[in-house]
Write a structure and sequence with these properties.
With 366 residues, the protein is α/β, with parallel strands linked by helices. The protein has two domains: 10-143, 3-Layer(aba) Sandwich (Rossmann fold); 151-353, Phosphoglycerate kinase, N-terminal domain (Rossmann fold, 3-Layer(aba) Sandwich), CATH 3.40.50. It is built from 15 helices and 13 strands. The strands form four sheets. It has a six-stranded parallel sheet with strand order 7-6-5-11-12-13, sandwiched between helices. Strands 9-8-10 form a three-stranded antiparallel sheet. A two-stranded parallel ribbon has the order 1-2. Strand 5, helix 8 (176-183) and strand 6 form a beta-alpha-beta unit. Helix 9 (195-202) crosses helix 10 and helix 11 packs parallel to helix 12.
């Protein structure tokens, strides 16, 4: 099989404090995780690269078992000695994982004494390895899960003010609920990315060929109305970097009132960055989720890069909601400059929305 390396080990490194604590206190640790969306057993989704990277980070052998349940797994667990670490194969090789099948959850728990959940990024999913197994073993939260809940929960409970939310990404539809929740809690909102096009269209701007969701424009208007009722600042782009396609070698800065019919807005422009910079300078707490443009393409990455740099230099409490924002920060080498960078994009948004996360709810007396 081709030698594959882990492209981004952020989530692996994030659980090292919990692993170290368990080993230092005499635990034998079995790890379970998932990768991708395999249809049955697909070798390309094996956790072999993860086991290899874990071994490098921990400085010990981390054998990958051939499965996550079954007789071979049971024997390997029984043979473990103090300080041993092993990794179970991809739980999603079994359809019962995502179905949260009780029998499969029971099989995952077999041979273990405790369940420690440190997978915040999957805590919003009621799967066998995140929720079901907690019904068969004494369940505890790991250090990462506790930190995520403390930092993100603090945004809801008692943020230092003014509190600014910067929300980007491609679509309003994926973040409509979090926007509704935030507009009732924050003092200012700055919108960027493709989702800004829907807001601009909803307020009468012609957006050319820009990505927009016409069926979400009424939702956008309601959010804007709520912001007006609460008398909070709501920043929409004033200008944008436009081009015929995201593959274009360069873009041109245009006012949002003058976007050509055959061009798309692909990044926020310099006037918008300047306005957002002012909001950032006034804020005491900032939550950021989602890029400001098509940051994967160099001509349209400047807005996202500048927002990241401004947050890195800010004295505010800066909390970043994982996903593509985390990817951008890692690429820019700025993740360590934030107060907290969540390892879970979807989970962080659902927590901000006020939803109960199944993986957290399954842990008694957390």
């Amino acid at each position: 099989m081709e030698h594959v390396e882990v492209a981004d080990d952020t989530r692996i490194r994030a659980v090292l404090p919990t692993l170290s604590y368990l080993r230092e206190h005499g635990a034998m640790v079995g790890l379970c995780s998932h990768l991708g969306r395999p249809k049955g057993v697909e070798p390309k989704f094996s956790l072999t690269p993860v086991a290899r990277r874990l071994a490098e980070l921990l400085g010990c052998t981390v054998p990958l078992l051939p499965d996550c349940v079954g007789e071979a797994v049971r024997r390997a667990i029984l043979a473990m000695e103090e300080d041993d670490v092993l990794l179970l194969e991809n739980t999603r090789f079994h359809a019962e994982e995502e179905a949260n099948d009780p029998a499969f959850a029971r099989a995952l728990a077999e041979g273990f004494d405790l369940f420690v959940n440190d997978a915040f990024g999957a805590a919003h999913r009621a799967h066998a390895s995140t929720e079901g197994v907690a019904h068969h073993l004494p369940a505890y939260a790991g250090f990462l899960l506790e930190k995520e809940l403390r930092m993100l929960g603090g945004l809801l409970a008692d943020p230092r003010r003014p509190f600014l939310a910067i929300v980007g990404g491609a679509k309003v539809s994926t973040k409509i609920d979090v926007l509704r929740a935030l507009v009732d809690r924050v003092d200012a909102v700055a919108i960027g990315g493709g989702m800004a096009n829907t807001f601009l269209s909803a307020t009468g701007h012609a957006v050319g060929t820009s990505l927009r969701e016409a069926d979400r424009e009424e939702d956008a208007r309601r959010i804007l109305l709520r912001a007006k009722e609460r008398e909070i600042d709501f920043h929409l782009p004033q200008d944008a970097v436009c081009a015929p396609t995201a593959d274009a070698p360069a873009g041109r800065v245009r006012d949002v009132d003058h976007v050509p019919a055959d061009e798309a807005m692909l990044d926020i422009g310099p006037r918008t960055v300047e306005e957002d910079a002012g909001a950032i300078s006034r804020a005491a707490t900032i939550f950021w989720n989602g890029p400001m443009g098509v940051f994967e393409s160099a001509p349209f990455a400047a807005g996202t890069k500048r927002i990241a740099e401004l947050l890195a230099a800010s004295r505010a409490t800066t909390v970043v909601g994982g996903g593509e924002s985390l990817q951008a920060l890692e690429e820019l080498g700025l993740a360590s400059k934030m107060t907290h960078v969540s390892t879970g994009g979807g989970a962080s948004l659902e927590l901000i929305e006020g939803r109960t996360l199944p993986g957290v709810a399954a842990i008694p007396d957390r």
